[in-house]
């Protein structure tokens, strides 16, 4: 048993209001710990606290009672005997009358009433006494917010745990609840009071009992809160949202059908309010209450509800549609605000509940009949005034909603309105033979009334959506005797003929988008009815496809019509694919897909090639079988045009590029999203390699770089989406082609330590500077460049675990071709290095080259001989100094173009190492810095001696070394990214930046050469513009001088504008961030001077560059571009 003095000290400290909250909490925790550890019992605690619980000192008594209550709250799971609980609840019940100690009494009652059965509960009789004391003693609305909240929590607890005892209190308790709620405005308290009403209703389920006599009084309190409106929002109320309160009130409104006589009139009254919020809430509450109150009670309000809904729908329309090509488009395209949307939802629900009643009201409505009587006077959409369009839209939406509610509703609407529409359109029942021919003179466009057309299409669409919903829910309604089915069957052929003829006529005329839209939509809907409901003949379905495809082939200059027809064909294709309409699927394949495939390969069709590709990709996306057919056709077209190109037909290059871009952007995206079509990707890549292999003679004299890039990208994306097994097949195919096809001798096995075998990989042409001009250095044959670039694409795109054959030989081949300026080879080197780093020890033993061996081969092996005349040959093929890639970078050769190629290759190798987190990237950085500094010293010396003639040419090595930092830090789209399975260590940019940037800053300070300093600033600009902004902000004070000097230097050359704009984006990020403001303030005068000089830059050029950045795939870049755009705007 605990020492009494220690307990008294804790009690004294808690009740002492001069003590800090921390000290009081510590004392409370100590008491709790004593009781939980059984060093102290509740009985002893109460005995020792007697003085504090009964003293006449109001403050001490209040603190003492609160302490006991909080202790009981903390001991909710500790078992107590019935006698102790009875004694304690009796004490706290009496204390409810003690308003100075009320909080402790409320907390104590709640703590005891919330106890579980296994810990000892308050008896039913004691709970009833608490309720009686609550009603007799508490004036809830006179209390503070926190105490009111406790009162409502206690009331809720009594209702939930002891409903029978509360129910026995009768009218007294009703009055008490009403009195407690009356005038409550606090959001937290209201979130308790509204559910209390729901609970109260459950306690008195008898509709003729006590609740019935008090419903009016109770709802008078509830109704005053509708609609929920926050006059002001305190910080502590932020966690209670208006929507939460509104939903709670809505649940209270619908808690009993006895509220119906009060709720529905109130909601209908508020529905006529001028406040949009009140209208929306009224509709939502009506929707919710309708189901709760039942059909019988709601029937007497049907007339008033219909009138209110009609007005809400027709008066809540905003701007009409600007374009009829947007999806989805409802009705006539008027923007429907939340009021109209909720009204239509409610209309559907009340129609479903009281079908016959609402159908009668709607069908006989005077306003709707006026619209039907007036549509004949408006032949075209443009002839209808705005108010007429609004009413027409509203009627169409109303009929659509109720028609798709149920089959009975659909039948009633069709029976009442469809014949009238057919009469207005002058469409008759199909003849008995069922013949239907496309005679464009049968239905002249002047008789094709727009209003009737629109309403007709809405009814047909509603019927179709109703049937499709039943199919999706696996329901099989008996439609054999349905009126709508019979009418559609009777008019289907004539409707198809009418829509087709009218479209054919409109193709030769200028028609409004709405007229065209609904004719196309009508054909689309008729073509996509399930065959078991509307068995359209094969001939009729074919006619629909024929007229639509004829527009695709001929009327491509009518953009709106063409796009709408293409969308319709896509919808039809999706329907026949998803719902397995076999007969229609065959017709669609022959009439649409096959013709579309032929479009891509045929040049005799006048349609622009871009539209052909758009049609092919969209129609292919309508179904798996359709896409397989389209892909096969596109592959054949790509291979054929590539073959034409390499045999000298340069005109085919442009179309081939468009084909490849479509394949990458549309086809591959669809294949990746759909999945399961890897064999298609494998076939595409193998076909490209077969084409490369078969093209022995290249007739072209100049390489089309854009075509080469497009082909490489398509191949990389396709390979990147393949599995390792498929990639291994591709690697072997590509390797076999390159081994047998390139003019550079290529040995299939290679020992990197053997100079004799390395001689087999000799470059066939010397890299020589004897011609005195760098730009005359021998390059590849175009065929070799084509093959090697595509082989590099394969290596770039494969997964890390794919088996690359003869890695050492391939590395040597790429290093050799890098010196000839083949950038894809350099990128492939970086990719190989990056992916070798993921091989496990077991895997490494099974391949012919490990990461360390590859790194050693690149950085240490001397692969070439450099003779005194500057001629570079493969090691072992001549006399001279042995050199490696790093030697060439550092100037062992006087050939500057050769050094530039070597630096580019080293940069991409370094990028692969950097992403991998390999320590060898430090050596790459040292070499690049040495290139910058040593070449800078040479340039400074030549400048003093007057030997520096062509500065741009002479600075090419330094410029390449500086730009290598861009390769290292930037996110590449063509290699070493996630799409192509590069391994990227987290935070690699941050680590590289924090390591290299201080070195560059130090070099800038020490440099006395203006040329060298400018190139160091250029390298720094690449680092800063590609580093994460958070890193820049953390070092903003140190970086600001470098950034501003970089801006000044880069503004001197218009060729550096891209780098300049990148730095401006970084600067805007610093300016708009709080952490960067200190750095800005310290360099304010320099910043102002720098930006003042930049005013000479064309303003629009800056804005255009920023706009390009707004479309950048990286979210961070887009965000900074937005900020910069605001600043420059």
TrEMBL record:
Location in or out of the cell: Nucleus
MMS19 N-terminal domain sequence ranges: 46-314
Family membership noted in the UniProt record: Belongs to the MET18/MMS19 family.
Pfam family for this entry, one: MMS19_N
Function: Key component of the cytosolic iron-sulfur protein assembly (CIA) complex, a multiprotein complex that mediates the incorporation of iron-sulfur cluster into apoproteins specifically involved in DNA metabolism and genomic integrity. In the CIA complex, MMS19 acts as an adapter between early-acting CIA components and a subset of cellular target iron-sulfur proteins.
Domain MMS19 C-terminal: 701-1124
UniProt protein name: MMS19 nucleotide excision repair protein
Main location: nucleus
A Gene Ontology BP annotation from the UniProt entry: iron-sulfur cluster assembly
Annotated GO CC locations: cytosolic [4Fe-4S] assembly targeting complex; nucleus
Gene3D superfamilies assigned to the protein according to its UniProt record, in alphabetical order: Leucine-rich Repeat Variant
Cited InterPro entries: ARM-like (IPR011989), ARM-type_fold (IPR016024), MMS19 (IPR039920), MMS19_C (IPR024687), MMS19_N (IPR029240)
Key words of the record: DNA damage, DNA repair, Nucleus, Repeat
